[in-house]
Design goal:
alpha+beta, Arc Repressor Mutant, subunit A, D-Maltodextrin-Binding Protein, domain 2, about 40% helix
Length: about 300
Protein backbone atom coordinates (compact mmCIF):
# COMPACT_ATOMS: atom_id res chain seq x y z
CA UNK A 1 0.00 0.00 0.00
CA UNK A 2 1.25 3.49 -0.82
CA UNK A 3 1.41 6.30 1.76
CA UNK A 4 0.56 10.00 1.66
CA UNK A 5 4.31 10.71 1.58
CA UNK A 6 4.50 9.06 -1.85
CA UNK A 7 1.72 11.28 -3.24
CA UNK A 8 3.36 14.40 -1.80
CA UNK A 9 6.60 13.52 -3.60
CA UNK A 10 4.77 12.69 -6.86
CA UNK A 11 2.83 15.97 -6.75
CA UNK A 12 6.02 17.95 -6.13
CA UNK A 13 7.72 16.37 -9.15
CA UNK A 14 4.78 17.38 -11.34
CA UNK A 15 4.57 20.91 -9.92
CA UNK A 16 8.31 21.52 -10.31
CA UNK A 17 8.46 19.94 -13.78
CA UNK A 18 11.64 17.94 -13.13
CA UNK A 19 13.23 15.56 -10.65
CA UNK A 20 16.15 17.93 -10.16
CA UNK A 21 13.97 20.91 -9.21
CA UNK A 22 11.71 18.83 -6.97
CA UNK A 23 14.67 17.22 -5.20
CA UNK A 24 16.27 20.63 -4.67
CA UNK A 25 13.05 22.09 -3.25
CA UNK A 26 12.51 19.16 -0.90
CA UNK A 27 16.18 18.90 0.04
CA UNK A 28 16.45 15.22 -0.87
CA UNK A 29 18.31 13.24 -3.55
CA UNK A 30 17.05 12.89 -7.11
CA UNK A 31 17.68 9.12 -6.97
CA UNK A 32 15.40 8.79 -3.93
CA UNK A 33 12.63 10.68 -5.74
CA UNK A 34 13.01 8.49 -8.83
CA UNK A 35 12.90 5.33 -6.69
CA UNK A 36 9.74 6.48 -4.89
CA UNK A 37 7.99 7.30 -8.18
CA UNK A 38 8.91 3.86 -9.55
CA UNK A 39 7.45 2.24 -6.43
CA UNK A 40 4.22 4.25 -6.85
CA UNK A 41 3.96 3.29 -10.52
CA UNK A 42 4.64 -0.34 -9.65
CA UNK A 43 1.88 -0.24 -7.03
CA UNK A 44 -0.68 1.11 -9.53
CA UNK A 45 0.65 -1.03 -12.37
CA UNK A 46 0.79 1.95 -14.78
CA UNK A 47 3.17 4.72 -15.80
CA UNK A 48 2.28 8.08 -14.28
CA UNK A 49 4.93 10.16 -16.06
CA UNK A 50 6.49 10.16 -19.50
CA UNK A 51 10.18 10.85 -19.09
CA UNK A 52 12.36 12.22 -21.87
CA UNK A 53 15.75 13.91 -21.77
CA UNK A 54 14.07 17.32 -22.10
CA UNK A 55 10.90 17.24 -20.02
CA UNK A 56 8.33 15.32 -18.02
CA UNK A 57 4.67 14.96 -18.95
CA UNK A 58 1.73 13.23 -17.31
CA UNK A 59 0.17 10.13 -18.79
CA UNK A 60 -3.62 9.88 -18.76
CA UNK A 61 -3.42 7.84 -15.56
CA UNK A 62 -0.90 10.32 -14.20
CA UNK A 63 -3.31 13.22 -14.73
CA UNK A 64 -5.96 11.38 -12.73
CA UNK A 65 -3.47 10.49 -9.99
CA UNK A 66 -2.15 14.07 -9.81
CA UNK A 67 -5.64 15.57 -9.46
CA UNK A 68 -6.56 13.05 -6.77
CA UNK A 69 -3.22 13.55 -5.00
CA UNK A 70 -3.79 17.31 -4.75
CA UNK A 71 -7.25 16.72 -3.29
CA UNK A 72 -5.95 14.16 -0.78
CA UNK A 73 -3.14 16.48 0.32
CA UNK A 74 -5.60 19.35 0.71
CA UNK A 75 -7.99 17.18 2.73
CA UNK A 76 -5.13 16.00 4.91
CA UNK A 77 -4.08 19.60 5.57
CA UNK A 78 -7.66 20.49 6.57
CA UNK A 79 -7.77 17.49 8.86
CA UNK A 80 -4.49 18.64 10.41
CA UNK A 81 -6.10 21.95 11.33
CA UNK A 82 -9.18 20.24 12.77
CA UNK A 83 -7.75 17.35 14.78
CA UNK A 84 -4.47 18.12 16.51
CA UNK A 85 -2.58 15.05 17.64
CA UNK A 86 -4.56 12.58 15.48
CA UNK A 87 -3.65 13.66 12.00
CA UNK A 88 -1.88 12.72 8.80
CA UNK A 89 0.80 15.33 9.47
CA UNK A 90 1.73 14.19 12.99
CA UNK A 91 3.65 16.20 15.54
CA UNK A 92 5.73 15.33 18.56
CA UNK A 93 8.97 13.69 19.60
CA UNK A 94 10.06 10.07 19.13
CA UNK A 95 12.85 8.33 21.04
CA UNK A 96 14.42 5.56 18.95
CA UNK A 97 17.14 3.16 19.99
CA UNK A 98 19.20 0.95 17.68
CA UNK A 99 22.68 -0.52 17.55
CA UNK A 100 25.44 1.93 16.68
CA UNK A 101 26.04 0.28 13.30
CA UNK A 102 22.35 0.22 12.29
CA UNK A 103 21.96 3.83 13.42
CA UNK A 104 25.01 5.09 11.52
CA UNK A 105 24.86 2.90 8.39
CA UNK A 106 21.09 2.82 7.79
CA UNK A 107 19.04 5.18 9.96
CA UNK A 108 21.14 8.36 9.78
CA UNK A 109 21.08 8.77 5.96
CA UNK A 110 17.33 8.07 5.86
CA UNK A 111 16.58 10.44 8.76
CA UNK A 112 17.84 13.37 6.72
CA UNK A 113 15.01 12.69 4.23
CA UNK A 114 12.43 11.92 6.96
CA UNK A 115 13.15 15.26 8.62
CA UNK A 116 12.41 17.10 5.37
CA UNK A 117 9.12 15.26 4.83
CA UNK A 118 7.95 15.52 8.46
CA UNK A 119 9.27 18.78 9.95
CA UNK A 120 6.81 18.58 12.87
CA UNK A 121 8.28 15.30 14.15
CA UNK A 122 11.38 15.50 16.36
CA UNK A 123 13.55 12.38 16.63
CA UNK A 124 15.98 11.33 19.36
CA UNK A 125 18.31 8.51 18.30
CA UNK A 126 19.95 6.57 21.11
CA UNK A 127 22.67 4.62 19.30
CA UNK A 128 23.90 1.88 21.60
CA UNK A 129 24.56 -1.83 21.52
CA UNK A 130 23.09 -2.08 25.02
CA UNK A 131 19.44 -3.18 25.19
CA UNK A 132 17.67 -0.32 26.98
CA UNK A 133 14.63 -0.49 29.25
CA UNK A 134 11.58 0.97 27.47
CA UNK A 135 10.09 2.43 30.64
CA UNK A 136 13.21 3.56 32.51
CA UNK A 137 14.89 5.00 29.41
CA UNK A 138 11.63 6.35 27.91
CA UNK A 139 12.07 4.44 24.65
CA UNK A 140 9.29 4.69 22.07
CA UNK A 141 10.68 2.29 19.45
CA UNK A 142 13.66 -0.07 19.55
CA UNK A 143 15.15 -1.62 16.42
CA UNK A 144 16.86 -4.82 17.46
CA UNK A 145 18.15 -8.14 16.14
CA UNK A 146 16.37 -11.14 17.66
CA UNK A 147 13.36 -11.45 19.94
CA UNK A 148 13.20 -10.38 23.56
CA UNK A 149 11.26 -12.10 26.35
CA UNK A 150 8.74 -9.43 27.36
CA UNK A 151 5.01 -10.00 26.85
CA UNK A 152 4.28 -6.32 27.53
CA UNK A 153 6.04 -5.25 24.33
CA UNK A 154 4.93 -5.62 20.72
CA UNK A 155 7.59 -7.14 18.45
CA UNK A 156 6.93 -6.41 14.79
CA UNK A 157 9.23 -8.19 12.35
CA UNK A 158 10.91 -5.94 9.77
CA UNK A 159 12.89 -8.56 7.89
CA UNK A 160 15.86 -10.90 8.20
CA UNK A 161 19.47 -10.01 8.89
CA UNK A 162 21.94 -12.15 6.95
CA UNK A 163 25.32 -13.04 8.42
CA UNK A 164 28.64 -13.67 6.74
CA UNK A 165 32.27 -14.35 7.68
CA UNK A 166 34.58 -11.38 7.14
CA UNK A 167 38.25 -10.50 7.54
CA UNK A 168 40.33 -7.42 6.83
CA UNK A 169 42.56 -7.44 3.77
CA UNK A 170 45.53 -6.82 6.09
CA UNK A 171 44.77 -9.93 8.11
CA UNK A 172 44.32 -12.04 4.98
CA UNK A 173 47.65 -10.78 3.63
CA UNK A 174 49.36 -12.04 6.80
CA UNK A 175 48.20 -15.62 6.20
CA UNK A 176 50.12 -18.18 4.20
CA UNK A 177 46.94 -18.92 2.26
CA UNK A 178 43.40 -17.55 2.29
CA UNK A 179 40.81 -20.26 3.13
CA UNK A 180 38.64 -21.20 0.16
CA UNK A 181 36.95 -24.25 1.70
CA UNK A 182 35.13 -24.76 4.98
CA UNK A 183 37.67 -27.34 6.13
CA UNK A 184 40.45 -24.78 5.67
CA UNK A 185 38.51 -22.12 7.59
CA UNK A 186 37.92 -24.51 10.49
CA UNK A 187 41.67 -24.41 11.24
CA UNK A 188 41.41 -20.72 12.19
CA UNK A 189 39.91 -18.84 15.14
CA UNK A 190 36.48 -17.36 14.37
CA UNK A 191 34.80 -14.69 16.49
CA UNK A 192 31.12 -13.81 16.82
CA UNK A 193 28.82 -11.58 18.86
CA UNK A 194 26.71 -14.70 19.52
CA UNK A 195 27.49 -16.37 22.85
CA UNK A 196 27.65 -19.82 21.30
CA UNK A 197 30.31 -22.50 20.97
CA UNK A 198 29.61 -23.05 17.28
CA UNK A 199 27.50 -21.90 14.33
CA UNK A 200 26.06 -23.95 11.48
CA UNK A 201 26.56 -22.92 7.84
CA UNK A 202 24.76 -24.17 4.75
CA UNK A 203 26.43 -24.61 1.37
CA UNK A 204 24.82 -25.43 -1.96
CA UNK A 205 24.55 -29.14 -1.21
CA UNK A 206 25.93 -29.61 2.28
CA UNK A 207 26.06 -28.24 5.80
CA UNK A 208 29.01 -27.60 8.06
CA UNK A 209 29.89 -26.18 11.44
CA UNK A 210 32.49 -23.70 12.65
CA UNK A 211 33.68 -23.38 16.23
CA UNK A 212 33.45 -19.93 17.80
CA UNK A 213 36.55 -18.89 19.71
CA UNK A 214 36.05 -17.78 23.32
CA UNK A 215 39.57 -16.41 23.66
CA UNK A 216 38.20 -12.95 22.92
CA UNK A 217 34.48 -12.48 23.60
CA UNK A 218 32.74 -9.38 22.22
CA UNK A 219 29.00 -8.84 22.68
CA UNK A 220 28.86 -5.66 20.57
CA UNK A 221 28.50 -5.79 16.78
CA UNK A 222 30.16 -2.37 16.51
CA UNK A 223 33.19 -3.43 18.56
CA UNK A 224 33.43 -6.77 16.73
CA UNK A 225 33.44 -4.97 13.37
CA UNK A 226 36.21 -2.64 14.57
CA UNK A 227 38.15 -5.67 15.86
CA UNK A 228 37.75 -7.29 12.43
CA UNK A 229 38.83 -4.16 10.53
CA UNK A 230 41.88 -3.92 12.79
CA UNK A 231 43.08 -7.34 11.69
CA UNK A 232 41.72 -9.33 14.61
CA UNK A 233 40.77 -12.35 12.52
CA UNK A 234 37.73 -14.00 10.97
CA UNK A 235 34.47 -12.53 12.32
CA UNK A 236 30.78 -13.35 11.89
CA UNK A 237 28.98 -10.07 11.12
CA UNK A 238 25.71 -8.86 9.57
CA UNK A 239 26.25 -8.38 5.84
CA UNK A 240 24.24 -5.13 5.79
CA UNK A 241 26.66 -3.24 8.07
CA UNK A 242 29.72 -4.40 6.12
CA UNK A 243 28.66 -3.08 2.69
CA UNK A 244 30.59 0.20 2.96
CA UNK A 245 33.82 -1.50 4.10
CA UNK A 246 33.46 -4.07 1.29
CA UNK A 247 33.04 -1.31 -1.30
CA UNK A 248 36.09 0.48 0.11
CA UNK A 249 38.11 -2.70 -0.28
CA UNK A 250 39.22 -2.84 3.35
CA UNK A 251 37.10 -5.85 4.27
CA UNK A 252 36.58 -9.11 2.40
CA UNK A 253 33.87 -11.76 2.74
CA UNK A 254 35.09 -15.32 3.14
CA UNK A 255 33.23 -18.30 1.66
CA UNK A 256 30.36 -16.19 0.26
CA UNK A 257 28.60 -19.34 -1.03
CA UNK A 258 28.11 -20.51 2.55
CA UNK A 259 25.40 -18.91 4.68
CA UNK A 260 24.11 -18.87 8.25
CA UNK A 261 20.48 -19.09 9.29
CA UNK A 262 18.98 -15.58 8.95
CA UNK A 263 18.38 -13.59 12.14
CA UNK A 264 15.16 -11.51 12.30
CA UNK A 265 15.16 -7.75 12.91
CA UNK A 266 12.26 -6.25 14.87
CA UNK A 267 10.57 -3.02 15.85
CA UNK A 268 9.91 -3.31 19.58
CA UNK A 269 7.49 -0.93 21.29
CA UNK A 270 4.86 -0.70 24.02
CA UNK A 271 1.25 -1.53 23.15
CA UNK A 272 0.24 2.02 24.00
CA UNK A 273 2.41 3.26 21.11
CA UNK A 274 0.81 1.06 18.45
CA UNK A 275 -1.74 3.60 17.19
CA UNK A 276 0.09 6.90 17.70
CA UNK A 277 0.34 8.69 14.35
CA UNK A 278 3.96 9.85 14.68
CA UNK A 279 5.19 6.34 15.52
CA UNK A 280 3.30 4.75 12.63
CA UNK A 281 4.61 7.48 10.30
CA UNK A 282 8.19 6.74 11.34
CA UNK A 283 7.84 2.96 10.92
CA UNK A 284 6.00 3.26 7.58
CA UNK A 285 8.82 5.44 6.27
CA UNK A 286 11.73 3.47 7.72
CA UNK A 287 10.54 -0.08 6.98
CA UNK A 288 11.37 -0.09 3.22
CA UNK A 289 14.72 1.56 4.00
CA UNK A 290 15.62 -1.18 6.47
CA UNK A 291 14.29 -3.97 4.24
CA UNK A 292 16.37 -2.70 1.31
CA UNK A 293 19.49 -2.60 3.50
CA UNK A 294 18.78 -6.09 4.83
CA UNK A 295 18.52 -7.48 1.30
CA UNK A 296 22.31 -7.69 1.25
CA UNK A 297 23.19 -11.38 1.41
Amino acid sequence: MFHLDDLILFAEIVKQGSFTSAASRLGISKSFLSEKLSELESHFGVKLLRRTTRRLSLTEEGETAFAEALEMIERAEKLENLIAGHNLFPKGRIRITASIEVASEILAPALAIFAKLHPQIAVDILATDTVLDHVKDKIDIAIRIGKIQDSNLIQKKIGNTFLGIFASVGYLASLEAEPHHLQQLQRHSIYSFHRRQSLVLSGKEEKGEVAISNRIQIDSITVLKTFCLSGGGFCVLPVAICETALQQGILRRILPDWSFAPVPLYYIYEKSRSQAARFMTFMNFMTPVLVKALDAK
